[in-house]
Every structure is written in structure tokens, then in C-alpha cells.
Design brief:
Elements: H1 13-38, H2 41-48, H3 53-87, H4 95-106, E1 110-113, H5 116-120, E2 132-135, H6 137-185, H7 194-215, E3 221-223, E4 233-235, H8 238-295, E5 296-297, H9 309-323, H10 327-378, H11 385-398, E6 403-404, H12 405-423
Parallel strand pairs: 5-6
Antiparallel strand pairs: 1-2, 3-4
Helix pairs in contact: 1-3, 1-4, 2-6, 3-4, 3-6, 6-7, 6-8, 7-8, 8-9, 8-10, 9-10, 10-11, 10-12, 11-12
Length: about 450
């Protein structure tokens, strides 16, 4: 749609002919635009929809605007026909004809009458609601441009939302239905698993979203900043995108449950093996503790706990979940049990290490004593009375039960010191000997 020129002095014949040609082209453009708006798919949908909210308010106004547009166009057509009739009276228009044409083409001589219903909801040029207005052809075109732009914007934006969101919501709803069926097959149900509750919430949200998009599409339109073109902007998919992400999270959760169903038996076997190893280690620790108490004196030996019966009961529960295909319950239980079983095995090993520490100390002292005796023999000192005496004393302590580790360690150190002095080496730290000889050992 365009805008005609401003009023001026009496036009000559050439000016009149040019104005009529321009107005004729403009008339065709306006008619094409109005017919396209009349036939627009969005307009037909708006006419048949049960609208609410912002869309209902704006469509009421847009319908009145479209009614006015046709009334204005009819008035514009009549004025153009009248001008053409005057011009066609004679080949060379008279002064009176040119004055009449000037008034018709430039003056406010077009009267547009409308009903109260048509004008009530439509925007008016001067903010009034009169049932008739006087316009120049230029003013009438300007007014039609305003009404056409607002009406087209409303139709185009509604159609854009309807073209984008309902189809996407339907696709997501179909995916939601497939996910619900899969969830049901693995025991993920509302009230029994958080993912089942999420599916119910997503279903309710999508249902409400689709209903509102259908009845109030303009509530889901984000206008483009700084754009005045009809339909400038994009559909608001915030709620849809949020629910799509939530559904993806649920799918991942169900995939995890499916994975549990596939490898549950292998995980249960591994879990039982871990607990069996922990039990055997604890049994070994209890046996070693009795040996330590019998063979080592003056030593604090930590107590050894019993087998992890609570974990065994939970493993039996996990097996029951697997047997009854309660995968949604088995998944978190297996994860918890696997971590606890690893901790239990580590605790059992630490307990065995702590219990057998005195035996390890005794073994280290025995090894050290034998190593020094071998060195003494290599130096030809095996028959030395002092060394024999101290070796025998240390050996009796280390190979007797119960063994006092502190006393036995002192006896080994005395033997080391005596040997070191015979070799000419340094004294063993913390001991004194019969001589002051030094040397390398």
C-alpha cells in the first residue's frame, strides 16, 4: 500500500491524468493486499478458533479493522470511479472539471460511514469513535495502511505461532508417550520413582501448553526489538524447551535403569565376590589375631569385627528386586552396595594389616638377626663367645612364645652393636658397646 500526494492548487490536465494513473495502480495494490489478507490461512484459523486472553482482545479489534478496511476501500473505489467519470466527459477537461477533479483528488471529500460495531474495536485516526469521517484520498490510503499493518501483524503472528508450536508439542507428546510406555516396562511409575512423577508433570504441562497455544497464540509471541514490520519476531518456546529438556533427563534416567536390567546379574555376581573376599579377609584377620595373642606378649592387638551381615541382607534384597523386575529400585541400591562393598573390602584388609603388624615386626627382627649372623660367619667370627651369647639370647626371645617384641628388639640391637664393633663399623644408634672402634659396615 502507498500514499497519494498532498492537496494543492487546481491541477492541469496532465497532473490529473498522472494522479489518476497513480491512484489506479494504488487501487490494484490495495485490492490485492486486502484479498490476500482475506484469504490468509491465519485469518481463517482465527475466525474458527475459540480464542482467549490477548488474542481474543486483539482479534476483536482486528476484525473491526478489517471491516473498516473494506468500507474504506469501497469509498476509495467510488471516489476513484467518480474521478474517472469526470475525466472521461470530454477529451479536453474544462476549468470547472479540473477544479472538481482537484477537489476530489486532493480535498477531504470522501465520506466513510461505518457501524458502531465496526468502529468500536478498531483504532481511529484522531482517537474518536464517530460513525463517519471525511478523508482525502491520501488520508484514506494512510488510514488503510495503518489498519492493514495492525491487522496483518495480528494474523501473521498468530499463524506463525500456530505453525510452529502445536506441531512441535505434538511431536514431543508422541515421544513422551513412548517414554511413558518404556518407563512402565521397567517399573518407573508415578509415586514409586521420581522419573515417573516427572513424566506425569510433563504430560500435564504439555496438555495445558497446547490448549493455551491454540486459544491464545499471541501469548507466545516475542516481538523483534526495533522492528515495525508485520510479523516481526518469533514464537516464544521457553516452556516447550524446558519440558523438552526435562523429558530428555527422564529418558537418560530410564536408559540408566535399562542398563541396570541388562547387566544386573553380572553386577550382583561381582558384588557377592567383593563381599566374599571381605569376609575371607576378616576371617583371616580373626585367625591371625588369635595367633598374635598367643605368640606376642605385651602388644595391643585391635579387635576384628564380624562379617557384614547388613550388606548381605541388602544384596539379598537386590536379588529380589531383580527377580521381580523392579529395576527402578534395583538401580540406586546396586550403586550404593557397590560403593559399600568396596569400602568393606578395604576395611577388612586394613584390619588384617593392623592385626598382623606384631607378627610382621617379629619377622623383620628375625630376618635382621639372621642377616647379621651370616655376616659374622663370613668374617670368621661365628665362634666368638660374646657374639654367640648375644645371638642365642636374641634368638630365644624371638623364637619363644609369647614373644616380648620390645625386649626382643633390644636383644637384636645388642647383637648388632657387638658385631659392628668387631667389624670396626659404627655403633647401632641408641646402644652402647664394650669398645669405641669405628668403621664402615
Amino acid at each position: 500500500m502507498g500514499v497519494t500526494g498532498a492537496p494543492g492548487p487546481v491541477m492541469d490536465r496532465d497532473e490529473v491524468d498522472r494522479a489518476l494513473a497513480r491512484l489506479g495502480a494504488e487501487h490494484e495494490a490495495i485490492e490485492t493486499s486486502l484479498l490476500a489478507l482475506q484469504d490468509h490461512a491465519g485469518r481463517r484459523l482465527l475466525e474458527g478458533a475459540e480464542l482467549t486472553g490477548t488474542t481474543k482482545e486483539r482479534w476483536t479489534s482486528a476484525e473491526a479493522s478489517i471491516t473498516l478496511l473494506w468500507a474504506y476501500f469501497d469509498a476509495y473505489t467510488d471516489a476513484l470511479r467518480s474521478a474517472r467519470d469526470i475525466r472521461s466527459r470530454r477529451r479536453w477537461s474544462s476549468r470547472e472539471d479540473l477544479a472538481e477533479l482537484t477537489e476530489l483528488l486532493r480535498g477531504e471529500c470522501v465520506t466513510v460511514a461505518g457501524s458502531a460495531t465496526a468502529t468500536a474495536g478498531a483504532p481511529t485516526l484522531h482517537g474518536t469513535s464517530r460513525l463517519s469521517h471525511q478523508y482525502s484520498l491520501a488520508g484514506l490510503v494512510e488510514r488503510m495502511n495503518e489498519l492493514y499493518a495492525t491487522s496483518l501483524d495480528m494474523v501473521v503472528t498468530s499463524d506463525a505461532v500456530w505453525s510452529a508450536l502445536p506441531a512441535r508439542i505434538d511431536l514431543l507428546a508422541a515421544e513422551l508417550q513412548r517414554t511413558r510406555q518404556l518407563a512402565h516396562s521397567v517399573g518407573v511409575r508415578p509415586g514409586e520413582h521420581p522419573a515417573g512423577d516427572d513424566l506425569e508433570r510433563i504430560t500435564r504441562t504439555l496438555t495445558a501448553l497446547r490448549e493455551r497455544v491454540i486459544s491464545d497464540p499471541l501469548a507466545f509471541w516475542l516481538p523483534a526489538q526495533g522492528s515495525s514490520a508485520p510479523g516481526g519476531g518469533r514464537p516464544d518456546t521457553t516452556v516447550y524447551d524446558r519440558e523438552a529438556r526435562a523429558l530428555e533427563d527422564v529418558r537418560r534416567e530410564i536408559d540408566a535403569v535399562l542398563t541396570v536390567r541388562q547387566d544386573a546379574e553380572a553386577r550382583l555376581v561381582k558384588l557377592r565376590d567383593l563381599l566374599s573376599r571381605a569376609d575371607r579377609t576378616l576371617a583371616e584377620a580373626r585367625s591371625a589375631r588369635g595367633e598374635v595373642l598367643a605368640k606376642i606378649a605385651a602388644s595391643e592387638v585391635p579387635a576384628v569385627s564380624g562379617p557384614p551381615t547388613a550388606l548381605q541382607e541388602q544384596v539379598s534384597m537386590a536379588a529380589e528386586y531383580r527377580r521381580h523386575a523392579q529395576w527402578h529400585r534395583l538401580s540406586p541400591l546396586l550403586e550404593s552396595l557397590e560403593a559399600k562393598a568396596e569400602d568393606e573390602l578395604m576395611r577388612a584388609r586394613e584390619s588384617l594389616t593392623a592385626v598382623t603388624q606384631p607378627l610382621a615386626v617379629r619377622a623383620e627382627l628375625r630376618g635382621r638377626l639372621d642377616a647379621y649372623r651370616a655376616k659374622v660367619a663370613r668374617h670368621g667370627l661365628a665362634e666368638d663367645p660374646l657374639l654367640i651369647e648375644r645371638y642365642d639370647a636374641a634368638r630365644r626371645m624371638l623364637w619363644s612364645a609369647p614373644c616380648d617384641l620390645r625386649v626382643a628388639e633390644q636383644a637384636v640391637l645388642r647383637y648388632q652393636q657387638a658385631a659392628a664393633e668387631f667389624f670396626g663399623g659404627p655403633r647401632v644408634p641408641g646402644q652402647t658397646g664394650p669398645g669405641d672402634r669405628r668403621g664402615e659396615y
